[in-house]
Every structure is written in C-alpha cells, then in structure tokens.
C-alpha cells in the first residue's frame, strides 16, 4: 500500500490518499499511543522454551506474542536487458515520487490490477502518453470497474491487452521497450519509463520452517493449520502453525489484498493476542 500513488477504496477518504501519506499517518498514530519502534528489517524469528524472539538489524526483540504483518513485494518481470535499468527508468511499484519528472514523456505501465490502473491515472497527469500493458484480453478481469471506466475515459492513456513486455534496452537509462502480442509479434517503441505492477510475493522468507506456508509463501492460519497443531485448544483465526505467532494483512494466505481489509485484520488480531496473553496470565493474577 505504501507504494500506491492513490488509494481510493479506503473508508473516510472520498478523494483518496497516497500510500506514502497513509503509511506516515499510521506510524505517527502508533507512536502517539505508545508504540516502540525498531527501525530495521526482520531477519529471523526464534521460538524456544516459550520465548518468541524477533531478530532485526542486530537487535533482538522478545515478546509473548508476535504479529507478522510484513506484507508483500512486487514480482519481477524477468526480462533480459531491463534488470540492469532498475531505478534508471525501470521501477517496481507505483510512481509516487517519479511522476513529476516524467512531464511530456512516454511512459509504460505493466499490470492489470487496481495498482496498475491507479498508477496509469496518476502518471497521465504528467506524461505525454501512458501505455497500459495488460496480459489478459479484458481490462476488467482483475481491475475494479470504477478504475476501468476512469482508465478508458482518460485521454492520455492507451490500453494494450493480450500484450507483454518481452525486451528493452538503454544506455545507462531506459530508452526502448519491445512489446510482444499473443501471436508472437514484437514491436519496439521509445520509452522513458516503465512501471511494473504484476502481482506480489509475500515477504515471509525470513521466518523459520515451523511456520507453515502455502506453495506461494503466504502464511497459513486458523483452520488451515489444524493438522499438527500442538495445543488442545483450536488455533485462532489469524494464528499461524506456531502458537502465539499471528499473521495479518497481505502476507496471510486467503487474505483480501486490499488496504481496508489489511487494516481490519490488524485490528481484529489484537483481540486474539489479548486472549492468548490471558491464557498465559489470567487478568485476576496480574500484578496491578
């Protein structure tokens, strides 16, 4: 969500807000209610003798319960010639900061989901022309109808369905792209920038094997981890295969990949955390 140029399906913001703005507001809000931060990437989770310890940037953070909300990252295009141009005309994620620098230029967006549609609309405010490259035959196959209507109505956006980026080049910066159609034909076009939004993979590789995942790496929770569950009680809806380790948001198997749904999961998992803490230390036994 933090890379989205404009989020329009989040309650309370009828004109939308940027992912960067929403992320900054969330951090400020958490700080104001007393959250502590370790500003480093999570590198490992150790579960031993009832301890849950997260390793991050050389620090160790121990807790009685852990919530994993690491989200996802964009899948790579895997096209030769473009990997060396990442950051030099080729970008993964939304055009949050690059869009104003592309005034009067030719820009391409790859992807058929909401993020790609939002990126194309945002870029169309600056670029000479935005070409939306979609592998499927129907723009509405994975994109919300309100975005489909907006994209089709935008004068500066060209939609090319049943098309993929199959090549590209540039001397230190992106200069050309090769687009291939379903029949295998290729067309070389001048390109000043390419934004790739073709789905995501979960950021769960840092977790131990004991935490079960599906074949794509998303974390299994609740009824999906009943087999082999070590406790007499059933796992909570967002609890992973390791008791007192929970998952919320896009990294969780079966989650709805929308920011409002992720925020809702983050709120609901708090109740389950309180319940497992009560199991460890009932409220009546706690020291005031």
What does this structure look like?
- The chain is α/β, with parallel strands linked by helices and 288 residues long.
- It contains 4 helices and 15 strands.
- It has helices at residues 19-32, 114-124, 145-153, 259-280, and strands spanning 42-48, 51-56, 59-63, 66-68, 72-74, 90-92, 106-110, 129-133, 157-160, 163-169, 176-181, 186-190, 193-196, 200-202, 245-247.
- It is elongated.
- The model has no long low-confidence stretch (mean pLDDT 91).
Percent range for β-strand residues: 15-25%
Biggest sheet: strand arrangement: 6-13-7-8-9
- Number of helices, counting only DSSP H or I runs of 4 residues or more: 4
Class inferred from helices and paired strands: alpha/beta
Arithmetic mean pLDDT? 91
Shape: elongated
Describe this protein with a few key phrases.
15 strands, 5-stranded parallel beta sheet, 24% strand, 3-stranded antiparallel beta sheet, single chain, elongated, alpha/beta, 288 residues
Quick gist of this model?
This protein is of the alpha/beta class and 288 residues long.
What topology emerges from the helices and strands here?
Layout: H1 19-32, E1 42-48, E2 51-56, E3 59-63, E4 66-68, E5 72-74, E6 90-92, E7 106-110, H2 114-124, E8 129-133, H3 145-153, E9 157-160, E10 163-169, E11 176-181, E12 186-190, E13 193-196, E14 200-202, E15 245-247, H4 259-280
Parallel strand pairs: 4-15, 6-13, 7-8, 7-13, 8-9
Antiparallel strand pairs: 1-2, 2-3, 5-14, 10-11, 11-12
Helix pairs in contact: 2-3
